[in-house]
Design brief:
The complex is a heterodimer of chains A (154) and B (107). With 154 residues, chain A is an alpha+beta fold. Chain A is built from three helices and nine strands, in the order αβαββαββββββ. The two termini of chain B are 24 Å apart. In chain B, 30% of the residues are buried. Classes of the chains: A alpha+beta (154), B mainly alpha (107).
Chain lengths: 154, 107
């Protein structure tokens, strides 16, 4: 995607440094990418070419995604939701948004923190990007950061 | 002859309608990650509403390796068993549906 088109949909990106780090692809999505898997899409609706681990509730509720990252990644909730880089700690951030059709709050996106303190995200079927702040992707499409989780760096 | 021309005209109209709906759907949902959130988009629902007449156009999109069309294919074809096995990747799902399309005369 052209940078201008991405910024049109995520206008907060206009005020922070960011860069695309891949071409767009349908092969994986943001949740897979946050879990370091670029081979498949992770989606609670796990049919027709999508994947969801057994034992994790197949819903778009925040609690299901917290459970997902606990089970598959050994992450635990950051009680203070602090996005700051910490020594020997890896963090992910889960975004939630109001579903405009169903009028319920659902998970919309996940980002993974890099050792530099920046964040990396796969934007749906668009590119992977690096962005300086989590707020850079907040807005109409991804809503707000609802939960940050962390684990000891591997 | 007249019937053939009318049939071709109808196909072109359907193709135009599909292309317009798909274009809006791509533009407004490509940045989303979950198929359910993409599939409830009004344009996607209207494509499902086109029924089997949409299948050739969906398969054509799949040949580009683009789009979460499996949900629509499952809704429209209403096959008793999903041809894509659990755990398949997106690329595998595309390959399986295009194979199905070939076997059923869409190519």
């Amino acid at each position: 995607m052209a940078p201008g088109e991405i910024e049109n949909e995520f206008p907060n990106l206009k005020s922070v440094p960011w860069t695309a780090t891949s071409l767009e692809t349908d092969d994986y999505n943001c949740i897979a990418y946050a879990a370091n898997d670029t081979t498949r899409k992770w989606d609670p609706d796990a049919s027709g070419g999508r994947y969801w681990p057994e034992g994790v509730p197949p819903t778009l509720e925040l609690s299901s995604f917290v459970k997902l990252f606990e089970v598959i990644g050994g992450y635990s909730k950051c009680q203070d939701n602090d996005p700051k880089l910490e020594d020997h700690v890896e963090k992910i951030a889960i975004y939630c948004n109001q579903n405009p059709v169903l009028n319920i709050v659902e998970v919309s996106h996940a980002a993974r923190q890099l050792p530099t303190g920046k964040w990396t995200s796969k934007l749906g079927d668009w590119d992977d990007i690096e962005h300086d702040t989590l707020a850079a992707l907040e807005g109409d499409f991804y809503g707000y950061v609802a939960q940050i989780m962390k684990r000891a760096a591997k | 002859m007249e019937a053939l021309i009318k049939s071709e005209e109808k196909k072109l109209e359907l193709k135009d309608e599909f292309d317009a709906l798909a274009s809006v759907w791509y533009k407004e949902t490509r940045m989303l990650s979950f198929v359910r959130q993409k599939a409830i988009h009004p344009s996607y629902q209207r494509i499902i509403g086109m029924g089997k007449e949409a299948l050739p156009f969906i398969f054509e999109e799949l040949t580009k390796g683009k789009g979460d069309w499996m949900w629509a294919l499952e809704c429209i074809t209403r096959l008793p068993k999903n041809p894509v096995p659990a755990g398949a990747t997106y690329k595998e799902a595309v390959r399986i549906w295009l194979q199905w399309a070939t076997e059923h005369g869409y190519f």
